Model the fold of this input.
Amino acid sequence: MTTVLIVDDQPMQRFGFRMLLESQDDMAVVGEAGNGSEAVRMTAELHPDVVLMDIRMPGLDGIEATRRIIASGDRTRVLILTTFDLDEYAYAGLRAGASGFLIKDALPEELLSGIRAVASGDAVVAPSLTRRLLDAYADQLPSPSSGSASADPAGDGRLSSLTHREREILTVIGQGWTNAEIASRLHLAESTVKTHVGRILAKTGTRDRVQAVILAYDTKLVSPS
Done:
């Protein structure tokens, strides 16, 4: 059973999400929050598997709420909801630690599959779309602190434990390659690629594939095109 906290300042929007999620045998809505402050508090109390997070809310917005939830170390994953697929707020949400984002007018089955994907540890944003998003906004938004990225990839501590092959795979993940593309182009079995990706996430402390893409940008393995 996947537990979900719905966060949106519009009561009718929350009602619609609740109706949809509660129609599923494998999902349970554990609460609703109308702003970011409530979202942070309720996540700490309820420990949902997934927070369905609106961005634009009065008071504490969804980006800062996401940052605080992720910083708390809770196992909860955040799925951002946004109005535009290449919106700078969505990028900021991903950098804050969200596991992906969806458009608010996504089809019901897209929302449900997105929640299931995030709950299982996958990223919701397609690799190619993640690359587009980062290319569009990498130079426009604040960089992470100087201690978390390096102009020299070899000097970044998060990469020091990676093997040559793992660093190669992290680079092409940052370029938007899917597991199938990596397997085909590097002449590896797809199961081997999945194993490498899992090790990369574990060694670098990244939560999912989206965060791995951001790491590739932060450490200059990949540069905006």
User: Anything to note?
Assistant: The longest strand covers residues 27-33. Residues 144-152 have pLDDT under 50 and may be disordered. The radius of gyration is 17 Å.
